[in-house]
Amino acid sequence: MMIANSATIAFRHLKKNKQYTLLNVFGLSVGLACFIMIGLWVRTELSFDRFHTKADRIFRVGSALMDETSSTQQAVTGPPLAAAMMKDFPEVRDAVRIDPADATIRIGGETFVEDNILVTESSFFNIFDFRLLKGDRRTALSEPYTIVLSESLAKKYFLDSDPVGKIVRVFRYDPDGTGIEFKVTGVIEDAPHNSHITYHALISFKTWETVRPEINGPGGWSNNSVHTYVLLNKDASADALARKLPTLVTSYMSENGDGKHAQQFFLQKMTDIHLFSRLMFDFGPNGSMTHVIIFGSVGLVVLLLAAINYVNLATAYATQRYKEVGIQKVMGARRRQLVLQYLVEAWILCMLSLLIAICWVEFARPLFQSMTGSEIFGLYQWQTLTTLVGLATSVGLAAGFYPAAMLSNFHAIDMMKGGRGTLSGVLVRKILVVAQYSLTTILIVGIVVIQLQLKYVRDRDLGFDQDQIVVFGVHGSPEVLSGYEVFANELIRNNKVSGVTRSNTTMGGGLGNSLCNVQNADGRYVSTTVYRLRIDHAYLDVYGIRLVAGRGLIPGNPADSSGAFIVNETMVKQMGFRDPTEALDRPLELDGIKGEIIGVVKDFNYDGLHQRIEPMCMWLLSGGYSRISIRLKGDMKESFNDVAATWKAHFPYSPMQCQFMEDTLSGEYASDKRFSKVFLIFSAISLTIACLGLFALVSYSVQRRAKEIGIRKVLGASVANILSLVSREFIALVTIGLIIATPVGYYLMDQWLINFAYHITLELWMFAAAAAFVLIIAWVTIGYRSVIAASVSPSDTLRSE
C-alpha cells in the first residue's frame, strides 16, 4: 500500500513538473541507449570463439623468426608441425592445419572468384564446433580433390538442390592451369558472426599434399604458410606444453640455423586471438581490447553524465518541494517513508527512460552497425532485458538516493519557511558539474587527437605513388597467365594508361617474409628476416618507387633472371652500411636463390602506418603471379572503363576482380575510421547531455534569483552585468573541469597513439583547442539562458513585493 501511494504521488509530481520530467527522461534515455548499444557491441567482441565447447583447450601455434637484430612474430607455421606435435607431446589430443586461399570456381558455364577458402583436414570437425549440415564429418575432407561448401555458397551455386556428389571445376592445385574437378562432399553452416575463423568453402589438405608432397618433408618446416591449431587433453597444462616447444627446433630444424637465428614457436589461446592477436598473416583484421575498453568507458561516461544530470536537477528542484515535504512531516510522515517516495519516483523515471531508450536503440541500430562494422545481437533475450531492468533500477536508486536523503533530512519548521539549499547540496552540484565537464573534455580531446592522426595517416608520404593505380586479381586463371603480354601491350598503346606491371602480391595486403643470409659491413654473413616482393621490370616505375643507389631490373638482361635483388634503406642500415652504394654487389641468399644486391630503393610503407618499415627485398618474378597493377591517367572513370573493356575482350572467361590501390591502403585503417566515427558521435552526445544539465541548472539559478536580478536592473544593472553575475560561477566550474581533464586526456591519447608505428606528437594547442571549444559551448548555453532572464522586465518579477 505504501509503495502504491508513493507511486501515485510520484506520477502526480512528474506530470506537474513537465520540464523537469522531460529533461531527465531525455538525458537518461539517451544515456541508457548509448550504454545499451555499446554494451551489446562489447559483449559481442568478448564472445568471439567462445561458442566452441572445447574453446578453453584450443590453442593456435604461432612462430617467431629470430635473427641477430630482431624477432618477427606471425600466425603461420610449416605444414609438418601439426604431425610432430601429435607425435612428440602427449598433451596434444588433436591438431589441424588451415591454409587460407582464394580460387576461381567454374560450374557449368558460370565462373566465380571466391576468397576465404580454407585448405584443411578432417580434424577440423573434431576440434571446432562448426556444424556439417550434409555429408560425413569423418570422410568429407579425407580424400584429395574434395570440397565442402558453406551453406550460403551451396545456395548460390545450386539453389535448393542437394550439392553433395556434384562436381565443380577449381582453378587451384592444377599443374597445367586448366582447372581440376573437385567433388562436393558436404555442406557446412556459415561461420557465426563471432568467429575469427571464417570461410566460404573447405578444400581437403590432401589435395595440396598430392600436388606438393614435399611440404611434409624437412623443407616444409620453413614453408610458413599454414595456421596450426592444437586441442589439448583435459588434464594437460598449456604452460607445460609451451616449455617443450623449443625441442621442436632442435629436433627438426637444426639444419636451418646455428641456434642463434632459429625459428621459435609459442602458444596462443584461441579465445584471445580476436582481441589480443597482432601477428603477421592472421586470418584478417582482428578487434582490439583497447577499443573495447575505450568504447566501454565511453558508454559508462555517457550513462554517468546522464545520472549526474538527474542528481543535479533533482537537488536543484528540491527547493520547490520544501513546503510539500514539510507538510508531510507535520502530518506524521517518517523519514524512511519520504526516502521511499523519492526513490520510487526515481525508479519510475528510470523505467520510463529505459522504454524510450530501447526505442532509441532500434532507431539508431542501422547507423551504429554501419559505423562499427559489426552487428549487435541479443537485445530481447530475457537475460539482457533482466540486466537492463536491473541496471535502470540501480541507476535510479543510486541517482535518487542523495536527493531523497537530503530532502528527508530537513526539519519541518525550516521547510515550512521555504528554507534555502544546504551547503552540502550546493557543493555536491558543483562537484558534479566539474565531473561532467572533465569527462566531456577528455572525450573532445580524444576527437581532436584521433582526427589529426587520421589526417596524418591520409596525408603522409608512403614512399610510393598510390594514386590512380587499379590492381586486378589473377586467381590462377590460365587465360590471364598466358595472355598477359598481348593484354599489357594493348594497354600501353592506350593514351589513358601510363603503365602496367605484375607482382606476386599487393602492398597493404601483407608481404611474406623469410630468413635470408647476407654479407654485412664487416664482411660476415648474417641471418636477417626480410619481407619479400616478387615483381617485373616495370614495377618500380609504375608505383613511383625511387632508387637511391644502383639500378632496377632491366628487360632482356639475363643477369636479372635469377639472383638480382633490390633492397630498401632499412635493410642497408641493418647490414651496417652508412651509404647505400656500399651495399651494392654484396652477396645475398633468399629462398634458395643466391645472388647479389643490384639496387637500393628509398624506404616506403608497404604495410601501412601501424607497422614500422622492416627490411625488404624484391626480385624478378619467375613462373606465376597473382596481381596486375595498371596506372591510369586522365579521367579516372573513362580510363577505367577502357581498361575494363580491354580485360573483357582478352579474358572473356575470367571474372574481373579489382580494387584501387587507394582503397586497399585505406582499408588498413578501416577500424580506426570506424573508431573515430563512433567516438565522435558519442562524444557529441555526452557534450549535449552535459550542456542540457548546465542549461537546467542555470534556469534554476535564474529562477531562484529572479527578484535579485529585478532589483539589480532597477538599480541600473545592464544585460552584460546580469550575464556576468549568473555565468561566472558556472564558467569557473567548467574551467576547473577543463584543467582536470588535460593530464588525463594526454595520458589516454598517448596510450592510443602507441598502436601506430608512425604518429603525430601531442602538443599543447590540441588540448587548448578542445578546452576552448567546450568553454565556448558552455558559455553559449549559460549566456542564452542568462540573456533571457536579463531581458525580463523588473515589474514582472517584483510585482508581488
Q: Give start-end ranges of low-pLDDT stretches.
A: 255-259
Helix content: 40-55%
In this structure, how is the largest beta sheet organized? Answer: 6 strands, mixed, barrel
The separation of the N and C termini measures 44 Å
Structure characterization notes:
- The protein has 801 residues and is an alpha+beta fold.
- Helix content is 49%, strand content 18%.
- The chain has 25 helices and 22 strands.
- α10 packs antiparallel against α15 (423-459) and α10 runs parallel beside α21.
- The model is unreliable at 255-259 (pLDDT under 50).
Q: How would the blueprint of this fold be written?
A:
Elements: H1 2-16, H2 18-46, E1 58-66, E2 71-74, H3 81-88, E3 92-107, E4 110-120, H4 123-127, E5 132-134, E6 146-150, H5 151-158, E7 167-171, E8 180-188, E9 201-204, H6 205-211, E10 227-232, H7 238-244, H8 246-252, E11 263-269, H9 273-276, H10 289-317, H11 322-330, H12 335-372, H13 382-409, H14 412-416, H15 423-459, E12 469-473, H16 478-493, E13 497-503, E14 512-519, E15 525-535, H17 539-543, E16 547-550, E17 564-568, H18 569-574, E18 587-590, E19 593-601, E20 616-620, E21 627-632, H19 636-650, E22 658-660, H20 661-667, H21 670-704, H22 706-714, H23 719-753, H24 764-790, H25 794-798
Parallel strand pairs: 4-9, 6-8, 15-20, 17-19
Antiparallel strand pairs: 1-2, 1-10, 1-11, 3-4, 3-7, 3-10, 5-8, 6-9, 7-8, 12-21, 12-22, 13-21, 14-15, 14-18, 16-19, 17-20, 18-19
Helix pairs in contact: 1-12, 2-10, 2-12, 2-21, 10-13, 10-15, 10-21, 12-13, 15-21, 15-23, 15-24, 16-19, 21-24, 23-24
